[in-house]
């Protein structure tokens, strides 16, 4: 199985710095999406943004779990 660069980086990230940088980026994106949702958007746009927000939140969980399982 081919390992992605992000997997290699997380495996080699003993200190958690790379993990935290990823999580910061994901959390910034989530905050921006929440801000847009709170501004009021059309139902279609709400569905798209909400799906994206769920994906970003799931990405945070995956990064946390992967890092914890490899360290």
C-alpha-based Rg, rounded: 15 Å
Kindly name the structural category. Answer: mainly alpha
Query: How many distinct beta strands?
Result: 0
Shape: elongated
Strand content: under 5%
* Portion of residues within helices: over 70%
Q: What is the number of helical segments per DSSP (H or I, 4+ residues)?
A: 3
* Number of structural units classed as domains: 1
What is the H-and-E element order? HHH
Largest sheet: none
Instruction: Report the average pLDDT across residues.
Output: 96
Low-pLDDT residue spans: none
Measured distance between first and last alpha carbons: 20 Å
In short:
The protein has 71 residues and is mainly alpha-helical.
Task: Describe the model.
By secondary structure, this protein is mainly alpha-helical. It has one domain. The chain is 82% helix and 0% strand. It contains three helices and no strands. It has helices at residues 5-11, 17-39, 43-70. The longest helix is centred in the C-terminal third of the chain and has 28 residues, at 43-70. The radius of gyration is 15 Å and the shape is elongated.
């Amino acid at each position: 199985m081919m390992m992605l660069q992000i997997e290699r980086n997380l495996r080699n990230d003993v200190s958690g710095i790379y993990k935290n940088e990823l999580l910061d980026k994901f959390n910034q994106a989530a905050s921006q999406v929440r801000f847009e949702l709170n501004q009021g958007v059309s139902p279609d746009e709400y569905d798209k943004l909400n799906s994206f927000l769920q994906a970003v939140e799931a990405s945070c969980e995956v990064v946390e779990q992967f890092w914890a399982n490899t360290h």
